[in-house]
Amino acid sequence: MQIIIAPDSFKGSVSAIEAANSIERGIKKVFKDAVTIKIPIADGGEGTVDAIIMGSQGTYKEAPVTGPLGEKLSAQYGILPDGSAVIEMAAASGITLVPKEKLNPMEATTYGTGELVKAALDSGAKKIIMGIGGSATNDGGMGFAQALGVVFKDQQGNVLGLGAKHLKTISMIDVTDLDKRLQEVEFVVACDVTNTLCGDQGASAVYGPQKGATPELVHELDDALRHYAAIIKDQLSKDILEVPGTGAAGGLGAGLLVFCKASLKSGIKTVLEAVNIEQHLKDTNIIITGEGKIDGQSIYGKVPVGIAEVAKPYDIPVIAIVGSIGEGASKVYDYGITSIMSILDNPMSLEKAISDGKSLLEDSAERMMRMLKAGMSISDTSK
Predict the structure, then answer these.
(1) Whole-angstrom Cα distance, residue 90 to residue 48?
(2) Residue 105 and residue 163: Cα distance in Å, rounded?
(3) 357: Cβ–Cβ under 8 A, 6 or more apart, which residues?
(4) Measured between alpha carbons, how far is 86 from 130 in angstroms, rounded to an integer?
(5) Which range of residues forms the domain containing residue 333?
(6) Residues 147, 254 within the same domain
(7) Is 60 left (phi over 0), alpha (psi -120 to 50) or beta?
């Protein structure tokens, strides 16, 4: 029996790699000789680099970067066997890098993400895959562009500094020194966010509050991004205001489209393509996937459904082990998920479920395998 184990992370509890290891231990308690292939998965957010590096036998690299609030730190990125680079913007500009009491979307910058891209270019990458989930920023990719050579000036010709606080005073965008290598690189952005740059569904309104923005600040940030888009349209002849995905990562999606000619693609599809999961499907009997919560929204680019869609042509059963089963979860059955199992085996607090994530996953996988073994026995006796 060959089993693919391809979970996402269980946010705040276990990483995708830890989840895969826990599930494998549960499987081996019942089917000791089973061939298990662990392919941790991400959807473009946290864990994207780990998932792709592990799935493709790539290598890790580190680069010194500027953090969201200007602090110096070291960030990881990956180089794949074909020379492509994989980057998570959250490694340099992520919300987890900022203490909650210091979150400030006016000050936060994507400069460090630009530095990561520069490091990848210095490594010789001709293709860059970037996950852009989990940002602390709302600067429209201004800092990202600055790290790669773009100069922003105000009406008096003064060079502007870092952070969204400068967006509203941009009067000139000078791309003369923009890194020329960007024009030679295929830039793929793993992103399932379809928000536009501005408005009620824009970067500031939807994601600003979780980054520390008050209602008044949301309005100010939205106006600033609108001004930014107008300057880009006027000086660079690129109309980004209503393009879906430009609101991702505090508007970094917009910056990537403008300065890198990037293409925005489904996060889960991008990751599955990079790890080449299909090479393992021919001889696989069952796939076990999972994530923290599955519900009616999981059909929109979440890992379990993405896995199921890849497996469907091969008629491989896909079972999702999840932290919780939310409203509308049955929708996923129409997209190829065979069954769902919760890791909760008795009433418990969220805190306990999070702290005991590894053991709960292992126990759930064991129970699942025992049910599978029982089903196999029934099948044999019915012949």
Answers:
(1) 10
(2) 8
(3) 10, 13, 14, 18, 19, 22, 323, 343
(4) 6
(5) 2-40+285-381
(6) yes
(7) beta
Q: Confidence class of residue 377 from pLDDT cuts 50, 70 and 90?
A: confident
Does residue 279 lie in a domain region?
no
Would 112 be classed as within a structural domain? yes
Read off the DSSP letter of residue 135: B
Closest residue by Cα to residue 53 from 270, 271, 262, 264: 271
Q: How far apart are CA 101 and CA 103, in angstroms?
A: 6
Whether the pLDDT of residue 232 is over 90: the answer is: yes
167 with 56, same domain: the answer is yes
Report if residue 274 sits inside a domain: no
Are 9 and 62 in a shared domain?
no
CA distance linking residue 67 with residue 98, whole number of Å:
9
Mean pLDDT of the chain: 92
Pairwise CA distance, residues 335 & 21, whole Å:
26
Q: Six-digit token pair at 244? A: 């879906």
pTM for this model (two decimals): 0.84
Task: Name the region of 289 (left: φ>0; alpha: ψ -120 to 50; beta: rest).
Answer: beta
User: pLDDT of 267-276, one tens digit each?
Assistant: 888 888 888 8
Percent of the chain scored above 70 by pLDDT? Answer: 99
- In order, the DSSP letters of 217-249 are HHHHHHHHHHHHHHHHHHHH----TT-TTTTGG
Is 359 part of any domain?
Answer: yes
* Cβ contacts of 194 within 8 Å, gap of 6 or more: 244, 245
Please tell me whether residue 194 adopts helix, strand or coil conformation: coil
DSSP string, 74-92: EEEEEE-TTS-EEEETHHH
Residue burial 41-72, b: 16+ Cβ < 10 Å; e: rest: bbbbbbbbbbbbbbbbebeebebebbbbbeee
Strand pairing of 186-190 and 339-342? unpaired
* Rounded (10°) angle between helices 267-275 and 48-56: 20
What pLDDT, on a 0 to 100 scale, did the predictor assign at position 382? Answer: 62
127-131 and 186-190 strand pairing:
parallel
Tell me, yes or no, whether 35 and 52 share the same domain.
no
Confidence of residue 383 (pLDDT cuts 50, 70, 90): low
d(CA 320, CA 125): 35
Q: Which phi and psi angles does 319 have, rounded to 5°?
A: -115, 135
